[in-house]
Amino acid sequence: AILVPIASASQHHPFGAPPSKRRASPAQQSATMPLRGGIVAIIALGCGAAARAHAQAPDTELVVAHFKEDLSWAARWNTSGVRLRVYTKGDVPISVEAERLPNVGRESHTYLSHIVNNYDALAKWTVFTQGAAPRWGYRHGDSGSGHLTDEIDFKDYMEPFHGGKDSFFALSTVAHLPSGIQSTRLGMLTDSLNSVSNALCPASGPDGWSAWWVDESHPHRRAGREMLAFYHKYVLQNDATTGTALAPVTLAFVQGARFAVSRERILKRPRAYYEALLERVSHSRNPLEGFFLEAMWHDVFHPERVQAAAPLCEYMPLPESLAAMTYAEMFEDSAQRLTAKDMVSGYFDARQLSDAYNPGVTEETTEETTAAPSETEVTTHAPSETDESTTDASSEATTEEPETTQ
């Protein structure tokens, strides 16, 4: 703390006596020197402590949100210049050291806990990831899905300031709110694209995305208005009216919540900002806000480039009346476009897409997997239009939830 002496208020001046216009005598100047020196010393001590904290921070830190996944892949990154930081909410992994956190809030709680608790000692470059080994593709309900798109490799995340940028996001899904319809990056549907991009957006502009599709059971679909209100109140922290807050917005995000950011990028928001978000995901094991934040991390760390102001990429045009396709229709449409526009070599069948990416089919559920939560399995603290109080719709019988998300 920096201690600054405050002069006692004058009886004639309720806010303190005005400063004297007379020059202080040498004796008076000498008398104040020890006090000034003490203040300077205290300030220097505080600055020195902050400097030491940054000096002790690693160049790169890999933050893993673990439940029951095999982390042998992560242990390989525990090398010189990289600090592996595993937070577990399930079984303690035997391959690496881990810190236990309460089993609440999914990976959002893990990431925010790390930021809040290490705000003054963040690494120059921090990679945030779920516990599943990073590999291409995604299958709903499969905790082994690695969520990588195009030809991106995990080492791209681990390279500080990759491509000369202070963050690394590879957007793989886009959701329209409040409708909750979605579009998928084609690099997540197939690994056979002729043109790929390892950057924020696909290489082919709008053609790099699927047609818009809908999953009636998805949290974005069921709670689109609450998600939009959460975005404005807790991510943008604006004072928009209800009508403005519920204006449509399109949010692109990294499916699986994997990204890398610099220390300076995290520090663009004050600690209190992250504390407020952390509080929202600290009340239940599977909060709806956890799914909300998965779609909002880019805007959390990029206050100067929020998607409410402008889209991050070029997307497929929204369908008329927001009438999106089914999964089967989206796969068929994508396969036809991939073939017709020579985006892949040879004939391409819709079954090749559905085998690689099938968000509508859940494999046999085990303790280590979870589908999108049902109406009775989630707790939401997002404000509604008419009620700012929290509602708890979770079941007492809810089991531990892994970090994996749709």
Radius of gyration: 25 Å
Helicity, in percent?
25-40%
What's the end-to-end separation, in Å? Answer: 44 Å
Average per-residue pLDDT, rounded, comes to 76
Taken in chain order, the helices and strands follow as HEHEEHEHEEEHHHHEEHHHHHH
Strand order of the largest sheet: 3-2-1-4-9-5
Specify the biggest β-sheet: 6 strands, mixed
* Approximate strand percentage: 5-15%
Spans where pLDDT lies below 50 across 5 or more residues? 1-52, 360-406
The number of distinct helices, counting runs of at least 4 residues, comes to 14
Broad structural category? alpha/beta
Q: State the domain count.
A: 1
Shape: globular
Number of strands: 9
Region (Disordered): 1-30, 355-406
Biased composition (Low complexity): 368-380
Pfam families: DUF3431
InterPro entries: DUF3431
Walk me through this protein's architecture.
- The chain has a 6-stranded mixed β-sheet. It has a 3-stranded antiparallel β-sheet with strand order 7-6-8.
- The protein contains 14 helices and 9 strands.
- The protein has helices at residues 26-56, 72-75, 106-117, 154-158, 186-189, 219-222, 224-236, 242-245, 263-266, 271-280, 288-294, 297-301, 327-340, 350-356, and strands at residues 60-66, 82-88, 99-100, 125-130, 167-168, 173-177, 182-184, 249-253, 259-262.
- With 406 residues, the protein is α/β, with parallel strands linked by helices.
- The protein has one domain.
